[in-house]
Structures are given as C-alpha cells and as structure tokens.
Design brief:
Two copies of one chain form a homodimer.
Chain A (H helix, E strand, L loop, with lengths): L3 H15 L8 H8 L3 H13 L3 E4 L5 E4 L8 H9 L28 H16 L3 H13 L1
Antiparallel strand pairs in A: 1-2
Helix pairs in contact in A: 1-3, 1-4, 1-6, 2-3
Chain A binds a DNA duplex (30 and 30 nucleotides) through helix 3.
Amino acid sequence: MLSKKCKYAIHALVYLADRYQQGPVHIQEIAEAQHIPKKFLEAILLELRNAKILHSKKGKGGGYYLYRKPQEVNLIEIIRLMDGAIAMLPCVSLNYYEPCEECLDEKTCGIRFAFLGVRDETLRILSESTLDQIAKQEKTIGKR
Amino acid sequence: MLSKKCKYAIHALVYLADRYQQGPVHIQEIAEAQHIPKKFLEAILLELRNAKILHSKKGKGGGYYLYRKPQEVNLIEIIRLMDGAIAMLPCVSLNYYEPCEECLDEKTCGIRFAFLGVRDETLRILSESTLDQIAKQEKTIGKR
DNA sequence: AATAATATCTATAATATCTATAGACTTTAA
DNA sequence: TTAAAGTCTATAGATATTATAGATATTATT
C-alpha cells in the first residue's frame, strides 16, 4: 500500500498540474483543497522541490508550481521518491536493489520470477500515468 | 515491499511443498533450513494452519505439512494472509476495499485507474505462481 | 505410567516507521 | 517596514514490524 505521504504528494501534484503555468500556489491553499495537514504537506512539497519536480517562490505572492510539464511527471517517479522501491522484493528492484536476506541463493530462488513480472508490469502501467493524463481523466469523468 | 513475515511464509511453504506427502516436518527443521527465527516461524505456521493451508500434528513425531496440493496454493493467497491487500490503494482493493480518505470523490478521481490496472496484472501473475510451480522452477534452475 | 519431543498459547520487549506538529528563521512584494 | 509566504530543525505520538520468553497441551515411545 502507498503511504499517506505518497498519496498526499500525488494529490498535491495533480492539483498543481491543473494550475500549470498560472503562477505559484501557496501551501495553505493546496492543504485546504486536498485536506492535507499543512505542516506535513510542507515537508512533502520540499522533497518534491529538491527532486526538481516542483519549484517554489518565497515571500509574499510566493508558493509552489510545477517545474516540469505535467506530461513529464509520472507516478513511478513520485512513488519512488516518497515510498521507495516499486518492486515487492528487494532482490527484484531496479532502483533499490538489495540481495534478499531470506534467500539462500538468489540464482536458484524460484520465487523471484513472478515478482520480476509484477515489477515490469507495474513499471509499464505507472510510467504511462502522468500528471497530465490523470488531470485530463478527472475532467473527462467529471463531464459524464 | 513484502514484510519479512510474508517472505518467511513463502519460503517455509516452498520448503514444505518439496516434502509434500512425506509426513510432518517440525518447525525446528524449517527454521534452520531457511534461516528463520524459530519463534517467529511458529506464529507464521500457526496462521497458515488456521487458514487451512497447512495442517499440523502435535506431540512426538509431529510437525507441519501441506494441507492442500502444492499446485493449489498460490502467492496471492499467501500475501493476502500475511500482509493484507495486494492493491496499492485501498479504494482499488478487491479483498480489503476501503474508500480512500484522501480522495475527495472516488467517482471523479483520476488516480485510481492506473492502480486498478496494476492490481489486475499483479493478481494475474501472482495467482499463476503456485508452490508447485515455484518448487519445480528451483529444481530446473539448480540443474543448469 | 513416565518421558521426551513436539505444537500451542499468551504476553511482551525491542525496533522501526509513519504521521503529525511546533516554533524559529529567511525571503520577498508591496 | 510589514505581512505573507516558504525553509529548517526538532520532536512527539501512534502504529506496525520483528523477535523472544515461558508456560501449557498433546502424542509416540519406552
């Protein structure tokens, strides 16, 4: 399961994708609109800023805004940043690989294969899911 | 990521699948062979027994053994039992559904779709992965 | 009947992680 | 100069995970 932190991040980013190129949005507004504890959101946005997904402007009239185009930020990147590995086993993770402590021998471990498949499919699906695509989807559904 | 508990469960079950219909295997042996803390393993096996995946025989000469055929126990069932939901979001889970607290309105939430896809693919792949299949795979690899 | 080997049950300790909050500080526009 | 923002450091509280201890019940064997 995704952590709350990660879900908050996704919601905040989709919110900012909706306001792309409309100037900085301040934390308070995002927090209220998305029902996210403000102080928690602060830490999250800061992390997204350090990862060059967001930019910020300090001082009066300041706030956060997307650094990249909404179609260039996908769920994979957000999840990795907030929660770490996508894979269900460390020995099968691309970005957070670690040998499985529980595995006696990775080479002959029959468990990994299924999880390799899951990882690949997950990457495929979530990397196609961008902020742009999510935001558009919400608008389409809203109209039905 | 799967919990250690879940990984221990999978390893123990694959071990028992290898010994299918060869009489009870005692906890101590599984713990040593798979490097699992014995007391922790006790709790895990008990849970698997309550879920009718394992059976046990008490007293001298007792131990644990598979209750069902190795081809009738898949990874989905084990993961659900040990770690809960397969899905990455509660609002997209079949067995552990809960409305997303973070979602303002599930009907118009554009985030769910991608995770629905991930859930379906994960279920598909992991339900095809049975103890029998894993054990066979290990033997095949071992021979190479 | 006694003994030893085993699973079962209850409790709890030790860690780790997640979620949330407080408060002082810095920057900027007006 | 002031008010409105983000930034930084610290920490509290809650929850979940991992591991262990010890007493009890059951069974095969002698």
